[in-house]
């Protein structure tokens, strides 16, 4: 049954496009009229708008950040895919493959070092010296600012 529903949507892209014109982003209604579930209709409607390029380290990092932002709730892969310009399925598969293979964040060591150095400087009552910090951890200043996860109550 699951494959039949996918085939209906795949064969009738013109019909899907007409329903999108008619109902905008009411995927519940579009799914009903297409005889499929809303997520499949939405995913099919978005096909062709997704990136086919290879994943970069920045893409991987952003994917992990977006998935982590869901903490204790279920991850909305369609929303994450929309933010990354990829399909929700591609994001879900990429994320779970990385988890299964135990592939760590290539910046994790730098993140830990950056956070420790920021905390050290703040605990001494110093203002964070990003130029010195970047040399100490081996990243450029902008990357240090990007990966820093220390919140001292002020905007970075």
From TrEMBL:
Which residue ranges does the record assign to the Myb-like domain? 47-99
InterPro entries for this protein: Homeodomain-like_sf (IPR009057), SANT/Myb (IPR001005)
**Cross-referenced SUPFAM superfamilies:** Homeodomain-like
Q: What is this protein called?
A: Myb-like domain-containing protein
Write down the species: Coemansia biformis
């Amino acid at each position: 049954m699951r494959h039949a529903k996918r085939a209906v949507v795949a064969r009738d892209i013109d019909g899907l496009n007409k329903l999108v014109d008619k109902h905008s982003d009411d995927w519940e209604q579009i799914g009903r009229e297409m005889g499929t579930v809303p997520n499949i209709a939405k995913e099919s409607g978005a096909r062709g708008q997704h990136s086919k390029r290879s994943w970069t380290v920045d893409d991987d990092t952003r994917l992990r950040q977006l998935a982590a932002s869901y903490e204790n709730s279920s991850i909305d892969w369609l929303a994450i895919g929309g933010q990354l310009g990829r399909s929700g399925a591609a994001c879900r598969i990429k994320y779970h493959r990385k988890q299964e293979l135990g592939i760590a964040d290539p910046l994790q060591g730098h993140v830990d070092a950056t956070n420790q150095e920021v905390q050290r400087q703040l605990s001494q009552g110093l203002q964070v010296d990003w130029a010195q910090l970047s040399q100490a951890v081996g990243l450029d200043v902008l990357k240090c600012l990007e990966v820093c996860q220390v919140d001292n109550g002020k905007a970075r």
